[in-house]
Amino acid sequence: MHFQNVCIEAIGACLPEEVWSSEQVEAHLAPLYQRLRLPEGRLALMSGIHERRVWQPGTLPSEPSIRSGLAALSASSIDASQVGCLIHASVCRDFLEPATASRVHHGLGLPEDCWVYDVSNACLGLLNGVVQIATLIESGAIPAGLVVGTENSRPLLEQTIAHLNADETLTRRSVKPAFASLTIGSGSCAFLLAHRDLSPTGSPLEFAIAKARTAFHDLCRSDQDSAGASMTPLMDTDSERLLHEGVATGAAAFATFLEDSGWSRQDIDRSVCHQVGGKHRGLMLEAMQLPVERDVATFPWLGNTGSVALPLSLAAGAYWNQIQSGQRVGLFGIGSGINSVMLGCQWRSTRVAGNFPASEPQYQDVA
């Protein structure tokens, strides 16, 4: 799918202030670690994730989403009245109904003739939303659109820790499916897309591809739909198979990416992958034959923030000038299911607003 008239005008981001280090998570798991004689430091060592952030108790996803959306709008030259579609696209949402996008739409003061709805597709929700809005802009249906999402890891982390400490039947082997849940972080991000006539300095979105290998849909599952009410699901993840099949799916999608785009590997100045952890990043870049020094990563200090992980990494890379005007950027998304969405854009002067650290946090063993 190719686009001629769509630009990424602005990105807004909102990060929680509260930080949980991997050492703190392990301290909360002291009963489990003592019972199974697990070595301290294994969480950061195995994942490459040193910190993750959590929202304050009781935070609804719509609240940070409104802040991220306002940040994107305030950083841009687009007026709220020009936004013709709002998609809320994270895994987390306020209630089963109404759509979380409804409250975000109201909070942003968007027009009444705006398309307003939720999209959910695991870690690919925001990228799917970008493609949908880009298609509407390309068709001439709307001049601009906003996709936003907020992931809230606190309930999952707290529920997982409580479950692991309470279940005395667990063994070193049976505890593995819960490991991925301990790497999840919180964050919020918004993409503002606009027609190139409205966004002369925005970054042109050139094309998008998708790859679905749904035979592996059962490798990462939350509880039954519990997005409303308590927001306390548990997750069961076959991390090893998910890693293997996810990398294979990404490699197959990347082959399509190169074929459809006409780009070569050497044309890609910067890559941004889904942020799972150090091992995933290394294997994914190796499979795509892309250099790690050109890749942007935030997982060491944000963890895996689901649908906003790749968007936040793109925003952070631009904020820290790791991504600069004139560079070709590949966005390589992978989500459980297993699905992949990959986008290519020509970076220009997309404005980024958010409460990022002044410089990239550094750790000794970042992969």
List the helices and strands and how they pair.
Layout: E1 6-14, E2 18-21, H1 22-28, H2 30-36, H3 42-47, E3 51-54, H4 62-75, E4 83-88, H5 100-108, E5 115-118, H6 125-139, E6 144-151, H7 154-166, E7 187-195, E8 203-212, E9 220-222, E10 235-237, H8 239-261, E11 270-273, H9 278-288, E12 295-296, H10 299-302, H11 309-319, E13 328-335, E14 339-346, E15 351-353
Parallel strand pairs: 1-15, 4-5, 4-6, 11-12, 11-13
Antiparallel strand pairs: 1-7, 1-8, 2-3, 6-7, 8-14, 9-10, 13-14
Helix pairs in contact: 4-5, 8-9
Protein name: 3-oxoacyl-[acyl-carrier-protein] synthase 3
Domain Thiolase N-terminal: 71-152
Domain Beta-ketoacyl-[acyl-carrier-protein] synthase III C-terminal: 258-339
Question: So what's the CATH class of the largest domain?
Answer: Alpha Beta
The CATH homologous superfamily name of the largest domain equals Thiolase/Chalcone synthase
Q: Count every beta strand, where a strand is a DSSP E run of 2 or more residues.
A: 15
- What is the strand content? 15-25%
For the record, the CATH architecture of the largest domain stands as: 3-Layer(aba) Sandwich
Radius of gyration: 19 Å
Distance separating the two termini: 33 Å
Class by alpha and beta content: alpha/beta
Helix share, percent: 25-40%
Mean of residue pLDDT values? 91
Shape annotation: globular
For the largest beta-sheet, the strand count, sense and barrel status come to:
11 strands, mixed
